[in-house]
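## Example pair
The file below holds two records. Each record gives the amino-acid sequence first, followed by its structure token line.
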Amino acid sequence: MRYKIALLPGDGIGKEVTYAAVQVMQAVAESFNITLEFKEQLIGGCSYDKHQSPLTDETIQACYDSDAVFLGAVGGPKWEKLPHHLKPEAALLKLRKSLGLYANIRPAKIYDALIDSSTLKKEVLDGTDFIVLRELTGGIYFGEPRGFDDKRGFNTMVYSREEVERIARMAFKFAGDRNKKVTSVDKANVLEVSQFWRNIVHEVHKDYPDILLTDMYVDNAAMQIVHNPKQFDVLLTSNLFGDILSDIAGMITGSLGMLPSASIGSKYALYEPVHGSAPDIAGKGKANPLAAISSAAMMFNYSFQMQKAAEIIEMAIERTLANGYRTADIFSEGCELVSTEKMTNQVIGNYTDIFNEQALGVFTL
């Protein structure tokens, strides 16, 4: 089997974590006897520097021609003063729209070895394992009209029936493979668009009677993620609310450097770590590659239907952390501080060991 992957390393540490993930992907390819074909393209600030555009038609076409897209990170202070449509972040919005990536999946799972790294108490976090399913191509980021002058600024939050139906259906399907609970997040008490969202979600729910559906206002959801994260299974959110809540969920796990994500459409999919480009540590070997590596695991799971490969990658990350290896962002006393390269090599070594152990029937974490 051959898979084509478009690589978009981007800016800052995006390059380092992408190459770390590629090494893990190659280890998977070797062990499962598949072929991965990589094609690298520019995106973000580095694309603007070369082409005066953060996302070129050539890059979009390379994504169209691939079975999956893997992104590192974009942005940095160097490009902050550019007009909005030329900023590196604009490339992400355009790419998501171009590929029809309407659902963003962000897991919030606590690794046992990192449970003391969070600012929350262990008893609050222990057992936390939920996903934030964020609608990605509608809502306030894309609504018209929009604009600003020296007297006012305005954006429009709008959703169509189709946009809400398809993300709601995905949420209920995901919940069916998990703990059968969906929490739909809105602000229906003050926003008409949220009342519309709630109405459509409840209509779709009629097709999934075995799934428990709960409505929750976004402000309460933010509090509950910190107060009692174990209550959640699948958090279904609009674009803006999901953007905020997924970062809150990320911080309760201890570090944004640990969070992977997948953006899924009907035909295409993009995988990326949640963290930013961190230009202050770029090129210093300090970047945490685990979110990118975990994003690669999601790619094998969702795009290539290689659930076993994804499972072993996650086990390898867990074992690496259990063995006490830490990059600077998750470092704690008694652990070994390691570089991006060493962390990656440890994961690959543990991946190989676990793959062989499972083949021999002697696996232990």
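Second record, same layout:
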Amino acid sequence: MEIWYRILEILPFEWARHGQMTFMKNALLAVILLTPVFAVLGTMIVNNNMAFFSDALGHGAFTGVVIGGLLGFGLPILSVIVFSLLFAFLIAVIKHKSKMSGDTVIGVISATAVALGIFLVTLGGKSFARLNSYLIGDILSITPEEIFLLFILLVVVLVFWLLFFNRLLLVSINPSLADSRGINTFLYEVIFSCFVAVTVAVSMPWVGLLVINSFLVLPAASARNLAGNQRQYHFIAFAISAFSGISGLILSYYIETATGATIVLILAAIFFISHCLRGRVAG
């Protein structure tokens, strides 16, 4: 981390000076590690029309926090990841075996999960306020140990993407063709869902449950308005995610707003601009 702190000293900000505000330097590194993950997974989420699904995973992660607290887990993140994975797997199985639409299945399970979490956390007249930080997120509180966890997540996601991107893309575009080529579409859907679940679970304490879905969807949705091929699609999504994350963090520091919400507003502005540009190009 000391090397990272030294590198930041070249920036023209008071918090970047030697020995100053390490929490801001930690948060910047966390954003740099998280934005590629959101961009990469978000492209496939948008391709598969899974925005509702990724939002539902946040509800499952919230319930994992509550259950982990009740069971006395020393590391709540472990219970969050486990519950999120179970939640994602349950949705995938029911979608695969049920005749109900995917939105219906996700809606039912998502509502049940978040209701269960609220029920448990308020049982016996307890206050809900202690979990407000998970709703809003606080990336300024991230520690070097937690940053290392984000680094591991980034490496795993990128390796997974490099190895299986073509198959994932084929499954998302034409499941029937994928089946005819011997690709187990259900298996790849489950694996991808689990990656999204882990990403949501790990990043929720710092991004915030209320806005985490926007981090996944908006960069890819904006890139889709501008890209002409898959390579451009991924590059633009990454550029938008990184720019919004870094600029949102710095802006929120100076105007004293919630970092997650500030980043999402920048992402939303970029999306509307890209939508207008797409309309002009189409015209």
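Notes on the second record: The radius of gyration is 19 Å. The chain has a mean pLDDT of 84.
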